[in-house]
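FORM 7B: Structural annotation worksheet

SECTION A. Query
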Amino acid sequence: MIAPYLVRLLCLSLASFFLVYLALSLLSLAGAPTAIRLAKRTTPLTATRLLLGVRLFPLAFSLLVVFALCLPSYLLLEPAANAERIGLGCLAAALMGAAVWAISMARSLRATADSLGCLRRCRGLGAEMRFAGEPLPVCVIEGETPVLALAGVLRPRIVLSRAVLRSLSPAQLETALSHERAHSISRDNLKRLLLLLAPDPIPFFRGLAALDRQWAKYTEWAADDRAVAGDTRRSLSLASALVRMARLGSPARLAPLMASLVARDEDLSARVDRLLRSGPPRENPRLRLRLALGVTLVAAGSLLLAAMLQPATLYSVHRLLERLVR
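SECTION B. Predicted structure
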């Protein structure tokens, strides 16, 4: 295929991203069991950061390679005069890169549209209220379906059904609202959007879905811990609120970008058991040191890549791109 300058640039960028992202995704997939084991030995908040970092590292580093190395080397060293042939291998990799991005973009846009539509329907079914001590707006909707969730990414608000409002005691309601406020403070809905936006290693293969599920579990645990703040009475109130919510019946099906108080039934017993234990969660200092060392190594690698933006490096990258395009 004969292609002009800008088309070659697009193909090389997509092909480079796909090849680097596939390699790093396989590396993250191989390291996922180790990351999950480490997450079990630390606090939920640290576990969410660890798992999110492992999950998004291939995307962040692949974009850095494309924008910091591939694009500058091509724009500076590739002659713009003549059209050149693109080989089948490069074209196939570019098409795969375009496919994984198209799927992730469609998934993210659909989730955003579903969440906005769900929030719009909730507003139509109820009215916004302010609760004492709760800084977030609360949309109280009519109906018997148990709903208590945080909706929205940029301007989050709590959605609460009248059935839940009647069923929970003041103490239970306060800790439940604190749980949703913890999701807002941590920007968990935004992180959910980033996870949806992260492409699959290959089209329609959710190879890192186990990391997504574990991250979601520890996100709920971290919100529980922030809501109770080590207070035994608040722990009992939140645990009883979870049980009361479960007894109200099956929760409503919510949009992907909404954080529900009872999101996963299979994790409910584990959450209640944690809340009924005495004492705040503790973290192993040695493990914290290891995690900090890992983060430092990743940051050092990124800085090293940025420091590689020397003429000799760009020439080497350009030669690799010349081989890839053929």
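SECTION C. Observations
Residues 2-325 form one domain. Strands lie at 2-3, 84-85, 126-129, 138-141, 148-151, 157-161, 258-260.

SECTION D. Sign-off
Analyst initials: ____
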